[in-house]
Amino acid sequence: MHDACLESEMKLLVFSVICTFLHVSGQNPKGRWSLLPNVLVLEVDGSLGQQPLACLSPTDKMLRRDNKSEDIFWKKNGVDQAQRGNSYLVQLEESLGGGEYTCYSKNGSLLNHTMVLIQEDETKRRKILVKTDQDDYLTCSAQNYDGEFHCSWTWHSSRVGKVAFIKARRVSDHNYTQCSVDASGQNWTCSSGQSKISCSVDGSGHRISCRDEQHCPYAEESKQIHITVYVRTEHFLLENYSKHFFLSQIVKPDKVRISQVNTSLIEWSYPSSWSSPYSYFPLTFQLALLRGRCRRCANPCSDSKVTKILTIHSTDVCQYEVKHKVKAVCVRAKDALCNSQWSEWSRWSQVPPKFYSSVISDGDKGAKRGRKNRQKHRKRA
Ligand SMILES: *[C@@H]1O[C@H](CO)[C@@H](O)[C@H](O)[C@H]1NC(C)=O
Ligand SMILES: *[C@@H]1O[C@H](CO)[C@@H](O)[C@H](O)[C@H]1NC(C)=O
Ligand SMILES: *[C@@H]1O[C@H](CO)[C@@H](O)[C@H](O)[C@H]1NC(C)=O
Ligand SMILES: *[C@@H]1O[C@H](CO)[C@@H](O)[C@H](O)[C@H]1NC(C)=O
Ligand SMILES: *[C@@H]1O[C@H](CO)[C@@H](O)[C@H](O)[C@H]1NC(C)=O
Ligand SMILES: *[C@@H]1O[C@H](CO)[C@@H](O)[C@H](O)[C@H]1NC(C)=O
Ligand SMILES: *[C@@H]1O[C@H](CO)[C@@H](O)[C@H](O)[C@H]1NC(C)=O
């Protein structure tokens, strides 16, 4: 009988421990962490909640000397608040509660400031960015293998946003990555044991340019780049968007420049931004011969009637003799060794009809040599 009693007491105890636990896990905010000095992120579930902010740390000499914390007053986004004292309770509800909180002494001098950002914890639905045509939020590309890349995004039409934080690293860096921003708020640097990547936000506000400072163009990449962009709205809502890739997966050459040699001969060469030597970084070119005119097409190279597609491997300047019936020629390029993106098309169109011949392609041997070299290199890496 005694044992049974004890047992039921135990059950009660376990029950109340579980209740306490449930109560704690039902609290809002669910979590809080510091994104940058003076920037606090609150992970909220949408329910009512409170988060205290301290103006001065308890050890601050002004607090200790005067011990008049009731003289401290607060503003939220520049608007006076009724709450007084060293501690301020931020009221949370749905995605509200974020803002710039400032505290002042009696005489009006600024004592401290904290930006509170709200991260919704059950956001199946993203609110700040919209997906691009590639079915992703971030679109990243590199012009070459030199270690620079760009990522861009599209803001949701009803929101005005800003970059709040950028984290970029080679993904298998297990070591802690530390990121910081300079005084301009535009240039970020992330360092860890094995990588250093710096990123800057373009003036447009929807694109960043990054550089892997330790990248070696001639070596195989063994680890992916992992980039996370934290964006916030003017209402202090925070979301993060990530992407990871090898540079070889996102490389996209710039447009080739086509020039006219004489009345029937055109030529083009590697984009000046492409990595050299070209025998090590060969490109494949694609030519589309267009017979029809397509003056009103938005994209004449892809919308027009293509009569023939030619593929040319070359590590040098390419020339092509244009036949009489061909009204226009479009050329694009891509890395010959990786299945990455084609460049945008470049277009040349026939002005007066002239004399014609057939394809000229040179430098093919060079391309094969380059490919072999790089593949050999890859196996070794
Ligand atoms: C100002 O607030 C931050 C938190 O946002 C705190 O870490 C810091 O100690 C405060 N500064 C002073 C002078 O109390
Ligand atoms: C400051 O005031 C509080 C009560 O308002 C008191 O508990 C505390 O001991 C005081 N501290 C100092 C350093 O005087
Ligand atoms: C305002 O008060 C603070 C501390 O309470 C003091 O450090 C500062 O010098 C004062 N400023 C003025 C303009 O009186
Ligand atoms: C970083 O990671 C390497 C292994 O990848 C390890 O040897 C090293 O101790 C780590 N450094 C720190 C500071 O964690
Ligand atoms: C930020 O980075 C850009 C591009 O790397 C550079 O042109 C600019 O001078 C940098 N700004 C500052 C303040 O360092
Ligand atoms: C990124 O956002 C997701 C919600 O979309 C969140 O669950 C996750 O904790 C965030 N990651 C970081 C590091 O803040
Ligand atoms: C154009 O130049 C090429 C190479 O220099 C030459 O073979 C061809 O005859 C020239 N064609 C005309 C029409 O001048």
From TrEMBL:
Give the subcellular location.
Answer: Secreted
The main place the protein resides is secreted
InterPro entries per the UniProt record, alphabetical: FN3_sf, Ig-like_dom, Ig-like_fold, IL-12, IL-12_beta, IL-12_beta_cen-dom
Pfam families hit by this protein: IL12p40_C
Q: Name one GO cellular component term.
A: extracellular space
Q: Does the keyword Signal apply?
A: yes
Instruction: Note the coiled coil stretches, chain numbering.
Output: none
Q: Which Gene3D superfamilies match?
A: Immunoglobulins
Claim: Glycoprotein is one of the keywords in the record: yes
Domain called Ig-like: residue spans: 37-119
Q: Which domain of life is it from?
A: Eukaryota
Keywords noted in UniProt: Cytokine, Disulfide bond, Glycoprotein, Immunoglobulin domain, Secreted, Signal
Q: How does it assemble?
A: Heterodimer with IL12A; disulfide-linked. The heterodimer is known as interleukin IL-12.
Protein name, as recorded: Interleukin-12 subunit beta
Q: According to the entry, what is the taxonomic lineage of the organism?
A: Eukaryota, Metazoa, Chordata, Craniata, Vertebrata
